[in-house]
């Protein structure tokens, strides 16, 4: 699947220093996404010496639950002080009864963290051994600072975090309240190798796998063989490592747990461990790194080095430790982690938990705020046929870079993959004012590859897809814009557009009353700048397109006309029916006769009473029908003939009073009547062009889901023309404007 | 039949409406306001796949002593059903090393089909063979199932039996005491599983029914601690903070359920909730400190017995969200629901007009202007529709949203950038609100100023210094 | 001459500053400590390696699954001590699910039998399957069996019971030739057993002993004892044959059969009390020198190499005493290399690291 391949072509390096680009939009968006609640990452292995807790980052993780967005919905203000109180008083209250049991446990002489209800307690009094930076002795025990993680001895963790082979390449999830340990354990193959021997292979790899088998038998010979020097030279010494495991330690609010865990597992944990398996298979990477770290720790233990010193050393020396640190930092900031594993060949990978580019629904009053995220119903991944496809962009959308184009380009150049050149090309060609299709056509480049590249830029947070910007359309201040950023944004804005009005002024103007955007620019030659301003504002989630949606509105006059029509038809049918009735009945008689004749042939009996009754019944029936038909006809005669007025909406003819206007929900699945309504309207348009536009638009656009703004793009028409045509439908459609 | 979801007594004693008996609950659902759909999560029935009691035996090691249903964890003679998971694989997470005991511990089986919820207990005491007594009562549920409601239950089991073990070695003596008792713990598990699955609650006086000890003993142990008395009640999301300028609207007739056990503040507050007053006003009229009022309201919110809305004024602006399409498509009979709620001023009109009303709202129209518009088109809305209820409906259903008004003073912004507190002449009172982050509602309520007055005050700012942003 | 071996090691280490190459100097032995639950594995472990005294062990809880400890040891040896919980469920687990994990790369199996076990045949059965697993994954491992809690048997029967148990166990040991010991945590026997085990474990011990001997002669000592730091067991000793040739009317000097163990025990208790009264931690190095001067002999105990203490017994006499002491300090260097050749280069490594860190 394309997503996979794209993610394996990282923007190496450039995203590594993403933290530094604070005003970077990507990080801006990252700040909005929910905190993944990552407390620490640990590397645990099983070697000849048994399970070993190799490394963890950060050195001394905090056991506080992640910061939560205190705001809800689209609110901007907060009264922190009061809220804290509320939270606490509330927590205690709820927990009191959730865990009413706890006091009881507290009484017992069980070790400190007796079934503590998660949040509240580690907020205040979370018992933990007093781990400083330095070693200290307690009751004759030499306590090593890095031999405790949270309140657990690593010696115990290393055994519980090296799950049996049953969990090989499966999701391992263990929660030790309040922490959750999630991982994707990798075991060595039964045949003592890390990956299946492929038949045809470069002989280098061949050699390795041979060595692998070598060490395989080495294992059973006890320490002897492997501890004998030269082995580790050509990386054949697996140190009897039979499994490894990068464990992610999370601390999440209960109601979010499952969701967050699923995300981080799919996008980070699985991929990282798989990559490490690859590195281990190709060059015994994980073991070499682990062995090195373990030695450094052992040495530092004897020399009683402070933890901070040791951690610096390890991070300096071990690329794996570095990778773990980078992943931790990136993931906790919702950034993209780009790591290079110093295996040979080098393994590069970029990892991220994808973050939404925009909101499509107004956040409810009980949803945590995602302020600053663009609010729009225009989803670039929903295609013309309104089918959502995460891998395929709508070709009528345009590309909006989330950062200065040149900046992105230099970043991409810094890292060259086979994708670099095409990506730069893509960035150069695409404009927020041009749909991908238009770009492809004007620049005659291949549309699909353009879409794939754009998709890649979007997936890696360098751009987003929007409906092409146009001066004729309307834009409003996004209800979700983050005004807390106004001061900073305002200064940035001034830098970017020195001559333009201040950002607040600009927003105020836009929000006062929706008008076609061009009316805001003082003159025609200001327009380009104004479009740039618009792009800037949308990128920052300040402004969002105001789009127009329509439903077909059937006025009583039309309803009546169709009713009338249907009645007329019914009448016609009835007539034909009755006539045919006659014939059929006669034929019936004839058959009767014939039957009778047969009988008479065999034996001459008089007509049985039954037959007589039957005939009578048929006659009565026929008569009844005739009567009804007559009555129906009479009524129909009384009905006033429908008159098509110029303005059905204002037709106040008395016979229409009873009817109230009707809205066609989905013209695509129109019922018989509904299609008749549409037809009736259609037939009233004299101009053939308008007429067939009517029929064309009806099913495709007048369904309350497709924005009318898209018509011109999708139908390849002039915008102006499109709107003038739409004007003719004013009365026949109901319009609603929203973002 | 039993009432399914009760509110724990403790809470009821504090301030929370007890809609713990079906009548209140459904009764209210029939009320006109009942359109307000509750978003709360109830634990679905029959989610406990298995329940078992495991122990660490000095000789044998980690063993399952009792299980229900039979054979669900370890094979039992005469049961050929497959086990839920391989116990040997999971046992190290069921009775882990001492360091991990006495906390809530959950784990998933390798197939990631089941989740084991447990609370391993390790009681240290010289009297035990190995100076320790370790056990765990575990509940097994499907991985997809909502685990949250069960945490309290598992903790409760752990503490109850710890208590009983400490009091009379209830668990450690089990094997040596008579077989009747053996059966009883098994039976107990059975009951817990069945009751929780069928009624989401169970109440079993362990002390009296299960104790193998003389009456005198029972007296001691038949106390609350030894009555297994558990309820699965949904854990709601933490309610959003309450703003002083928000307006609570009740989803039920509090008058019918309020009783003497209720917290005084809560009683006072509830009397003031009329769907019109903002929280500050309520606090004032109820003669309650604002913060207390807020807490009270937040509790009502937690139990989904009220909804918070913005302050309704005819000068307000509301605009449609994309969800307005749901209304036009009449999803889940919304149109009639709305009609029932808003057509109370006159004859009931067709639903078309409601569609018309919603679609004609927009970011640049105050309700006043909007009414005028329809007037001109010959539709005197007020004669038919209760506009406040109409807006409420729209907002609650998410069809429309309130467009708030914010004042932004350039001076204030620059002040924030340069981290200096610059004074704007003329802006004394409102300056702190003029950073674009405080909507007019807040100003109105906190400064007790009407929209017009606020605008007047803002005019005192230097010319062009203040911008009004509608958001 | 036999210096050569060490020199080569040194050079090699000197060259190696990259940590990757350091493991070569690492000598690791995986030691399985097994036996029926409650047979006293953890107790003896904590006495030998964690400076517990016998009565402390009463408070120990059961071992869940495996307790791992990595003991840095004489001769740059690291013992990976696998203290395996003996409950049936665990045993089954070792033999099935964790079979390879537990039994591969084993250097030493120490199997503890509880003399007072009701069901010895069953114990034998388990032992048998353990042996089977061991021969499958670590055929080269050496096996020691401790018949433990001998103190619970009436003295006059100990001998016989012990013997027939041992013979039975021997018969069930396949290819392995287990070394048996009768032990109890209440007397020296435990130290004796472990001292011997460790004695076998220590690499290049022969060299150490040679050097010890030559040192002894050099300083004209009557007796030289080398103590291992953590366990304070005598790993090597040398006795001047002068003692034996000396006239018999000095019974005090006639070594009692387990005097070394007694010595260990005494010093341990001494450390215990010092730590109790001085507040210094048990495991910390408490004394660097310990002088004892008696009318008929004198001895000193000095902190010797990283992992050892040296005990020297001399006939009375100041100057000889001081000279000896001085010489011993000089000899340190030499022994340091024998003890942990890695150490020095490790230091070098560390310094280079720190310089890197600062640069």
Automatic annotation (TrEMBL), chain A:
GO terms for biological process: cellular response to amino acid starvation; meiotic cell cycle; negative regulation of TORC1 signaling; positive regulation of autophagy; TORC1 signaling. Residues 65-74 have a biased composition (Basic and acidic residues). Keywords: Meiosis, Signal. InterPro entries: HTH_NPRL3 (IPR056603), Npr3 (IPR005365). The keyword Signal applies. It comes from Cudoniella acicularis. Belongs to the NPR3 family. This is Nitrogen permease regulator 3. GO terms for cellular component: GATOR1 complex; vacuolar membrane. Residues 56-138, 192-238, 575-613 are annotated as: Disordered. It holds the Pfam family HTH_NPRL3. It is found in: Vacuole membrane. Residues 195-206 have a biased composition (Basic residues). Residues 603-612 have a biased composition (Polar residues). Residues 76-96 have a biased composition (Acidic residues). It comes from the Eukaryota. It is a peripheral membrane protein. Residues 672-733 form the GATOR1 complex protein NPRL3 C-terminal HTH domain. Residues 577-589 have a biased composition (Low complexity). Mediates inactivation of the TORC1 complex in response to amino acid starvation. Required for meiotic nuclear division.
UniProtKB/TrEMBL annotation, chain B:
It comes from the Eukaryota. InterPro entries: NPR2-like. GO terms for molecular function: GTPase activator activity. GO terms for biological process: negative regulation of TORC1 signaling; positive regulation of autophagy. GO terms for cellular component: GATOR1 complex; vacuolar membrane. PANTHER family: GATOR COMPLEX PROTEIN NPRL2, NITROGEN PERMEASE REGULATOR 2/TUMOR SUPPRESSOR CANDIDATE 4. Belongs to the NPR2 family. This is Nitrogen permease regulator 2. It comes from Cudoniella acicularis.
From TrEMBL, chain C:
SUPFAM superfamilies: P-loop containing nucleoside triphosphate hydrolases. GTPase involved in activation of the TORC1 signaling pathway, which promotes growth and represses autophagy in nutrient-rich conditions. This is GTP-binding protein. InterPro entries: Gtr1_RagA, P-loop_NTPase, RagA/B. Belongs to the GTR/RAG GTP-binding protein family. The keyword Lyase does not apply. Residues 1-20 have a biased composition (Polar residues). Signal peptide: none annotated. Residues 32-42 have a biased composition (Low complexity). It comes from the Eukaryota. GO terms for biological process: cellular response to starvation; negative regulation of autophagy; positive regulation of TORC1 signaling. Residues 1-42, 339-359 are annotated as: Disordered. GO terms for molecular function: GTP binding; GTPase activity. Component of the GSE complex. Keywords: GTP-binding, Nucleotide-binding. The keyword GTP-binding applies. One of its GO terms (cellular component) is nucleus.
């Amino acid at each position: 699947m394309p997503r996979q391949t794209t993610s394996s072509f990282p923007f190496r390096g450039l995203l590594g220093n993403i933290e530094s680009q604070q005003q970077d939009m990507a990080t801006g968006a990252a700040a909005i996404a929910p905190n993944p609640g990552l407390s620490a990452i640990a590397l645990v292995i099983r070697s000849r010496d048994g399970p070993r807790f190799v490394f963890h980052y950060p050195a001394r993780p905090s056991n506080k639950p992640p910061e939560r967005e205190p705001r809800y919905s689209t609110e901007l203000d907060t009264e922190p002080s009061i809220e804290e109180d509320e939270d606490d008083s509330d927590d205690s209250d709820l927990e009191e009864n959730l865990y009413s049991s706890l006091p009881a446990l507290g009484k017992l002489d069980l070790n400190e963290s007796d079934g503590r209800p998660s949040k509240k307690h580690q907020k205040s009094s979370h018992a933990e051994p007093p781990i400083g930076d330095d070693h200290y002795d307690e009751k004759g025990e030499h306590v090593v600072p890095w031999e405790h993680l949270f309140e657990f001895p690593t010696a115990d963790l290393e055994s519980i975090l090296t799950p049996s082979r049953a969990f090989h390449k499966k999701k391992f999830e263990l929660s030790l309240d309040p922490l959750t340990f999630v991982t994707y354990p990798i075991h060595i193959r039964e045949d003592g190798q890390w990956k299946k021997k492929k038949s045809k292979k470069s002989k280098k790899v061949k050699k390795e796998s041979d060595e692998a088998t070598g060490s395989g038998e080495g294992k059973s010979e006890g320490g002897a063989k492997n501890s004998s020097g030269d082995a580790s030279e050509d990386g054949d010494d697996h140190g009897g490592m039979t499994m490894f495991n990068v464990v992610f330690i999370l601390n999440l609010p209960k109601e979010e747990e499952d969701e967050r865990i699923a995300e981080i597992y799919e996008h980070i944990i699985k991929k990282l461990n798989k990559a490490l398996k690859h590195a281990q298979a190709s060059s015994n990477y994980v073991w070499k790194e682990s062995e090195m770290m373990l030695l450094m720790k052992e040495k530092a233990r004897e020399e009683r080095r402070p933890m901070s010193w040791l951690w610096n050393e390890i991070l300096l020396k071990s690329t794996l430790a570095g990778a773990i640190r980078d992943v931790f930092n990136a993931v906790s900031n919702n950034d993209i982690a780009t790591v290079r594993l110093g295996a040979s060949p080098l393994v590069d990978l970029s990892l991220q938990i994808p973050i939404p580019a925009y909101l499509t629904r107004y956040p409810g009053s009980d949803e945590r705020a995602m302020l600053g995220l663009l609010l729009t119903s225009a989803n670039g991944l929903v295609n013309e046929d309104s089918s959502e496809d995460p891998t395929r962009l709508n070709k009528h959308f345009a590309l909006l870079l989330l950062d200065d184009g040149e900046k992105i380009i230099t970043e991409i150049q810094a890292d060259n993959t086979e994708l670099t050149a095409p990506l730069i090309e893509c960035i150069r060609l695409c404009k927020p004012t041009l749909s991908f299709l238009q770009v492809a056509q004007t620049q005659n480049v291949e549309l699909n590859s353009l879409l794939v590249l754009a998709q890649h830029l979007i997936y890696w947070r360098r751009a987003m897809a929007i409906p092409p910007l146009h001066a004729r359309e309307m834009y409003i201040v996004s209800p979700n814009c983050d005004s807390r950023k106004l001061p900073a944004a305002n200064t940035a804005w001034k830098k970017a557009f020195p001559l333009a009005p201040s950002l607040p002024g600009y927003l105020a103007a836009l929000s006062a009353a929706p008008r076609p955007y061009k009316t805001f620019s003082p003159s025609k030659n200001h327009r380009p700048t104004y479009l740039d301003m618009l792009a800037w504002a949308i990128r920052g989630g300040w402004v969002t397109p105001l789009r127009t949606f329509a439903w077909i509105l059937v006025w009583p006059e039309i309803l009546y006309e169709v009713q009338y029509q249907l009645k007329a038809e019914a009448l016609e049918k009835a007539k034909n029916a009755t006539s045919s009735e006659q014939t059929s009945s006669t034929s019936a008689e004839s058959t009767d006769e014939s039957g009778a004749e047969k009988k008479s042939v065999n034996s001459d009996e008089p007509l049985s009473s039954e037959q007589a009754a039957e005939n009578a019944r048929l006659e009565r029936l026929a008569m009844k029908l005739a009567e009804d038909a007559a009555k129906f006809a009479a009524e129909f005669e009384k009905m006033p003939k429908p008159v098509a007025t110029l303005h059905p909406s204002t037709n106040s003819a008395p016979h229409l009073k009873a009817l109230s206007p009707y809205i066609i929900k989905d013209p695509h699945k129109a019922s018989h009547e509904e299609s008749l309504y549409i037809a009736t309207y259609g037939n009233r348009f004299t101009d053939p062009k308008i007429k067939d536009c009517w029929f064309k638009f009806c099913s495709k656009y007048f369904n309350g889901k497709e924005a009318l703004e898209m018509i011109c793009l999708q139908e390849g028409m002039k915008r102006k023309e499109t709107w003038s045509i739409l004007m003719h439908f004013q009365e026949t459609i109901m319009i609603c404007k929203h973002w | 039949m039993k009432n399914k979801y009760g509110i724990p007594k403790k809470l009821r004693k504090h301030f929370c409406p007890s809609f713990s008996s079906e009548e209140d609950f459904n009764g209210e659902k029939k009320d006109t306001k009942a359109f307000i759909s509750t978003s709360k999560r109830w634990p679905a029935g029959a989610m406990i796949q298995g329940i078992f009691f495991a122990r660490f035996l000095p000789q044998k090691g980690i063993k399952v002593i009792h299980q229900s249903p039979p054979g669900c964890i370890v094979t039992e003679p005469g049961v050929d059903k497959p086990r839920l998971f391989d116990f040997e694989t999971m046992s190290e997470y069921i009775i882990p090393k001492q360091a991990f005991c006495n906390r809530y511990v959950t784990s998933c089986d390798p197939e990631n089909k089941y989740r084991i919820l447990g609370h391993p207990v390790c009681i240290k005491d010289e009297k035990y063979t190995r100076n320790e007594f370790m056990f765990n009562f575990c509940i097994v549920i499907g991985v997809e199932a909502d685990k949250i409601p069960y945490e309290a239950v598992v903790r409760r089991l752990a503490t109850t039996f710890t208590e009983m073990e400490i009091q009379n070695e209830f668990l450690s003596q089990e094997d040596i005491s008579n077989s009747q008792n053996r059966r009883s713990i098994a039976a107990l598990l059975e009951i817990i599983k069945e009751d929780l699955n069928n009624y989401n609650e169970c109440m079993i006086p362990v002390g009296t029914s299960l104790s193998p000890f003389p009456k005198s003993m029972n007296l001691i142990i038949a106390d609350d601690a030894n009555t297994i008395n558990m309820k699965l009640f949904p854990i709601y999301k933490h309610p959003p903070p309450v703003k002083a300028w928000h307006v609570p609207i009740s989803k039920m007739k509090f008058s019918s359920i309020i009783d003497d056990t209720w917290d005084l503040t809560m009683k006072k507050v509830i009397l003031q909730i009329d769907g019109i007053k903002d929280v500050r006003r309520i606090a004032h009229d109820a003669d309650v400190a604002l913060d207390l009022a807020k807490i009270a309201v937040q509790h009502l919110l937690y139990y989904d017995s009220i909804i918070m809305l913005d302050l309704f004024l005819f000068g307000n602006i509301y605009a449609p969200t994309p969800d307005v399409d749901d209304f036009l498509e009449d999803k889940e009979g919304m149109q009639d629901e709305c009609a029932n709620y808003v057509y109370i001023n006159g004859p009931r009109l067709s639903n078309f007009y409601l569609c018309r009303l919603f679609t004609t709202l927009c970011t640049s129209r105050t309700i006043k202007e909007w009414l005028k518009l329809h007037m001109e088109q010959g539709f005197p809305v007020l004669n038919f529709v209760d506009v406040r209820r109409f807006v409420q409906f729209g907002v609650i259903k998410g069809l429309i949203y309130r467009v708030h008004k914010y004042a932004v003073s350039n001076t204030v912004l620059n002040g924030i950038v340069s981290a200096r507190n610059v004074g704007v002449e003329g802006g004394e009172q409102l300056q702190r609100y003029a950073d674009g982050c405080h909507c007019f509602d807040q100003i109105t309520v906190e400064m007790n100023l009407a929209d017009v007055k606020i605008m007047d005050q803002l005019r005192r700012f230097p010319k062009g210094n203040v911008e009004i942003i509608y958001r | 001459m036999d210096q050569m071996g060490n020199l080569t090691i040194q050079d090699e280490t000197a060259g190696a500053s990259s940590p990757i190459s350091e493991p070569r100097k690492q000598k690791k032995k995986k030691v399985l400590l097994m036996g029926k639950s409650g047979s006293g594995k953890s107790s003896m472990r904590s006495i030998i390696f964690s400076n517990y005294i016998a009565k402390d062990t009463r408070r120990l809880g059961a071992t869940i699954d495996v307790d791992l400890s990595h003991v840095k040891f004489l001769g740059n040896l690291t013992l990976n001590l696998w203290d395996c919980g003996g409950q049936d469920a665990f045993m089954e687990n070792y033999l099935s699910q964790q079979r390879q994990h537990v039994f591969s790369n084993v250097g030493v199996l120490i199997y503890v039998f509880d003399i007072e076990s009701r069901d010895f045949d069953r114990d034998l059965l388990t032992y048998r399957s353990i042996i089977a697993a061991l021969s499958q994954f670590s055929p080269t491992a050496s096996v020691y069996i401790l018949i433990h809690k001998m103190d619970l048997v009436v003295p006059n029967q100990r001998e016989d019971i012990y013997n027939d148990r041992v013979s039975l166990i021997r018969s069930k040991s396949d290819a392995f030739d287990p070394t048996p010991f009768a032990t109890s945590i209440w007397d020296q026997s435990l130290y004796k057993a472990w001292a011997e085990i460790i004695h076998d474990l220590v690499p290049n011990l022969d060299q150490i002993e040679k050097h010890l001997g030559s040192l002894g002669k050099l300083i004209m000592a009557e007796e030289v004892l080398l103590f291992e730091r953590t366990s304070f067991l005598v790993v090597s000793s040398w006795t001047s044959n002068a003692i034996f040739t000396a006239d018999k009317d000095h019974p005090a000097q006639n070594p009692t059969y387990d005097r070394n163990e007694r010595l260990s025990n005494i010093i341990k208790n001494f450390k215990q009390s010092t730590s109790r009264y001085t507040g210094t931690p048990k495991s910390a190095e408490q004394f660097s020198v310990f002088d004892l001067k008696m009318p008929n002999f004198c001895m000193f105990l000095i902190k010797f190499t990283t992992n050892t203490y040296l005990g020297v017994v001399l006939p009375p006499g100041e100057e000889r005493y001081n000279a000896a002491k001085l010489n011993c300090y000089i000899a340190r260097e030499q022994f340091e290399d024998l003890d942990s050749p890695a150490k020095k280069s490790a230091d070098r490594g560390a310094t280079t690291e720190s310089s890197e860190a600062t640069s």
